[in-house]
Amino acid sequence: MPKKNDEIVRIDVPQEAFCIFCEEIRAEVNEKNTYIGVYSRQIYVDSFPYTLEKLSIALNVRWDMTAFPKSVSARLAYEDKQDVMIPPMDPSEKIKVTEDQEETVQLKAHIQCPPLEISKEGDIEVLVRMDNHFLSAGALSIKKRPTKKLRKSKTPTKKSL
Q: Which domain holds residue 82?
């Protein structure tokens, strides 16, 4: 623990990326958004291949002001594919300094994905590239719905009567 008069030196630069997966994002007044059809961690489907018709992603990326990246981009990775979701952005154009901490910068993006053809179980992951490294912003698992097994009805036998 540093003493009161010691200079605090930052060893690593805090960076964070997270997202919300939903069907639709509506922009409201006063910089508010409504997320419609928010997905939990996984989606269960009846069979594969499956077309995910609607997928919107609310992406948030935060970093320390002392390590301002030159470029930020994001990719949607699934089934060994990496489809570019948003083009590289100049972070200095779309930043918002958070109110709770003036040294933290936040970039927000809303992405409407085209329909995705899913051929097997797996994860849809959002990867954020900041300069030369990647951060995982989150993942949505696509799984086959478990089949319900029918239980055999127990009929009384002579022994049980």
A: 15-144
Q: For residue 135, what are its two tokens?
A: 């951060």
Confirm whether 55 is domain-assigned: yes
Question: Can you give the pTM of this predicted structure?
Answer: 0.74
CATH number for the domain spanning 21: value is 2.60.40
Q: How far apart are CA 137 and CA 108, in angstroms?
A: 12
pLDDT number for residue 105: 76
Q: Is 71 within 8 Å of 90 (Cβ atoms)?
A: yes
Contact (CB, 8 A) for 141 and 103: no
Partners of 101 in the β-ladder: none
* Domain assignment of residue 66, yes or no: yes
Residue type, 55: L
Q: Say if residue 158's pLDDT is above 70.
A: no
Instruction: Give how many domains the chain has, as a whole number.
Output: 1
What's residue 129's pLDDT? 84
Q: What is the mean pLDDT of residues 85-92?
A: 60
What is the per-residue pLDDT for 43?
94
Beta bridge mates, 116: 52
